[in-house]
Amino acid sequence: MNDARKSDGSDSDGETRSPLASLVITFVSGALIGAGLYWAAGDLWSAPSKGGMDHSSMANGGMANGEMANGGMPHEHGMLPVDDWANPPTIAARIFKDPESGWNLHVMTTNFTFNAAAAGYDNVEGEGHAHIYVNGDKLGRLYGDWYHIGGLSAGQHHVKVSLNANDHSALHRNGKELAAHVMITVE
Predict the structure, then answer these.
(1) N or C: which end of the chain has fewer CB within 10 A?
(2) CATH of 59-186, one of 3.10.20.880, 3.30.365.10, 3.40.50.2300, 2.60.40.10
């Protein structure tokens, strides 16, 4: 059986393949594939997410409302008035020292159902989640009545819990955000 390639890298008809040409072809092919993936990812990022909510502004740092996204950049969610709801929600909160470490925050609501599965979907009157802030920095979302706050430095700390609709809009009543405020003193 004849081997079409000789040991010197030439084909049976005498042509020699350059390693530089192979490298260039590999580089160009990789660049084309990378560009295609970049464009596809860009299209996915700018497409509206579930429920029609568009998070594309997050890529540019978003905007205010006091909420901070990753990296400390402001993140916009907007406001949703509840004045015309049949049963507008209420919120209150209490804080308790945890016997092991940190603090336990108890959030009490009326006319409001926490629904983690609906986060990011269309709003439903009387359901959503809460956002928790300590000294203006967002700790995260709350999907139930209790939240554990880890160790805090010595001094006074302001805890705010805001009620939010499924699309993350802050609920407002009579022009004021529906939020509970508690203070923690750490000695």
Answers:
(1) N
(2) 2.60.40.10
